[in-house]
Amino acid sequence: MQYASKQFEHNLVKIGTISCWGVFLLGIMYIITTALGFLSLKTPHDQIDDPFFTIMELLILFIAPLMAVSVVTAHFYNSPENRIFSMIAVLFIFIAMGITSCVHFVIIILGRYVEFTNPETFTLYFSFTWPSLVYVLDILAWDWFFAISLFFITPVFNGNRLERVVRILLIVSGILSLGGLVGIPLENMLIRNIGIIGYAVVAPFAFLLMGIVFRKKLLTADLHKHRNR
């Protein structure tokens, strides 16, 4: 039973490390693609077009499950007395990633059909021009549920200096993501971009450091294993 527990912990931190670093690498690709997409625009109010838009959509479909796995790893990494907080974080990250995955999968699939591409229908349902159905859902996912998840996962990282840096980045990412909601009552999506900075720019670096924390735990466990042989 003890071996099974140690093997579970070993597999957990290994998968968590890979997931966190995957979030970072794909997140950097997302930042680069988004930047290139913005540079291709004629005016700041235009939407990013293909191929950049489709690449961004596909990247999110890969980032979402990796984020969920990373938070699950953090939950098991957490001390037992604080796991109520990380369990709430797991709940909210799955809601957020589920919503955003549905949004971007629907856009990729249905947004290509003629029945859905007439200007009125497309703008109302599938565009990221305010207001639209997918825009509202994506804001709900990232600026609300994702932000709350980050706030509840922060108690996990309260140990050494590296963990404290992770904690700070998670809090900053959560605050910025939540701040994007201000753009809704003001009907100003440029202000809403504050949220994008939180979850698309700051968060990948927080997950990178989370992966380093898990990696160090994995190396420590392997070292103890070799010493005990």
From TrEMBL:
<feature type="transmembrane region" description="Helical">
    <location>
        <begin position="196"/>
        <end position="214"/>
    </location>
</feature>
<feature type="transmembrane region" description="Helical">
    <location>
        <begin position="133"/>
        <end position="153"/>
    </location>
</feature>
<feature type="transmembrane region" description="Helical">
    <location>
        <begin position="12"/>
        <end position="32"/>
    </location>
</feature>
<feature type="transmembrane region" description="Helical">
    <location>
        <begin position="89"/>
        <end position="113"/>
    </location>
</feature>
<protein>
    <recommendedName>
        <fullName>DUF4386 family protein</fullName>
    </recommendedName>
</protein>
<keyword id="KW-1133">Transmembrane helix</keyword>
<keyword id="KW-0472">Membrane</keyword>
<feature type="transmembrane region" description="Helical">
    <location>
        <begin position="165"/>
        <end position="184"/>
    </location>
</feature>
<feature type="transmembrane region" description="Helical">
    <location>
        <begin position="52"/>
        <end position="77"/>
    </location>
</feature>
<keyword id="KW-0812">Transmembrane</keyword>
